Amino acid sequence: MKRSLELERIYPHPRALVWSALSDPELLATWLMPNDFVAEIGHEFTFRTDPAPGFDGIVHCKVVDMDPERLMRWSWRGGSIDTTVTFRLEDAILYSRPATRLVLEHTGFDGLPAVLTSFILGAGWAAMLRKKIPLVLERMARGETLGPTHAPKANWRASWWWLAKLFSPILRRNAK
């Protein structure tokens, strides 16, 4: 059993601004998680969040590919998954104005535990692309200084925790 995620959003902002939201560690912390990210191929880094059943709250990553303002790819390991996340930026038009299309692919969910985890991550990625990144981009476009303490409220974490608790008996049973 295998599954991949692909999500797409168009933002009414220049590619350079969207790239900054994806590649600056402080900005990443505002919409994703606290991290020690550096935008260099080969850099190993971690994201940290609240632990959940079957997950210690640490995602181990490595930058495996990068073409500034076009593409960034990370390995993504945590809990029961060993996957890849790719961000692609493309030119777009929104309401007759230049914009940026962000395509997020999260691939490599192989086996029942990983596929179940993909549903949790898919919901999280969708919320971030739909709500959190636009808030960060709007504040950046206004020239506001952002950092981890300015993160939009993350009430979706409670949903993740309950979903993980629901799936944890299945994940443990299939991990053996």
TrEMBL record:
<protein>
    <submittedName>
        <fullName>SRPBCC domain-containing protein</fullName>
    </submittedName>
</protein>
<dbReference type="InterPro" id="IPR023393">
    <property type="entry name" value="START-like_dom_sf"/>
</dbReference>
<comment type="similarity">
    <text>Belongs to the AHA1 family.</text>
</comment>
<dbReference type="InterPro" id="IPR013538">
    <property type="entry name" value="ASHA1/2-like_C"/>
</dbReference>
<dbReference type="Pfam" id="PF08327">
    <property type="entry name" value="AHSA1"/>
</dbReference>
<feature type="domain" description="Activator of Hsp90 ATPase homologue 1/2-like C-terminal">
    <location>
        <begin position="13"/>
        <end position="131"/>
    </location>
</feature>
